[in-house]
């Protein structure tokens, strides 16, 4: 729930119309739950890309050593 004071010190609520405090928290938790699998998937892609890069560099180094 986004609450902040305006210049007169009165509380101002934004983008929470139609939700009670409990419903707003439930919506936020639902959005976070949907976000976590996406972050996990991104992390796994980064790990796989890093492993591929490491294997490629290792293979390139092995080829260079065998030529000498």
Order of helices and strands: EEH
Number of helices: 1
Query: What overall geometry do the principal axes of the alpha carbons give?
Result: rod-shaped
Low-pLDDT stretches are none
**Portion in beta strands:** 5-15%
Q: Which strand order spans the largest sheet, edge to edge or round the barrel?
A: 1-2
Mean pLDDT: 67
Structural class category:
mainly alpha
C-alpha termini separation: 66 Å
Describe what this molecule looks like in 3D.
With 68 residues, this protein is mainly α. It has one domain (2-67). The protein is 69% helix and 12% strand. The protein is built from one helix and two strands, in the order E-E-H. It has one helix spanning 21-67; strands spanning 2-5, 11-14. It has a two-stranded antiparallel sheet with strand order 1-2. A hairpin with a 5-residue loop joins strand 1 and strand 2 (11-14). The longest helix is centred in the middle third of the chain and has 47 residues, at 21-67. The mean pLDDT is 67.
Sequence-ordered SSE layout with sheet pairings:
Elements: E1 2-5, E2 11-14, H1 21-67
In short:
The protein is mainly alpha-helical and 68 residues long. 0% of the residues are buried. The mean pLDDT is 67.
Any descriptors?
68 residues; mainly alpha; two-stranded antiparallel sheet; rod-shaped
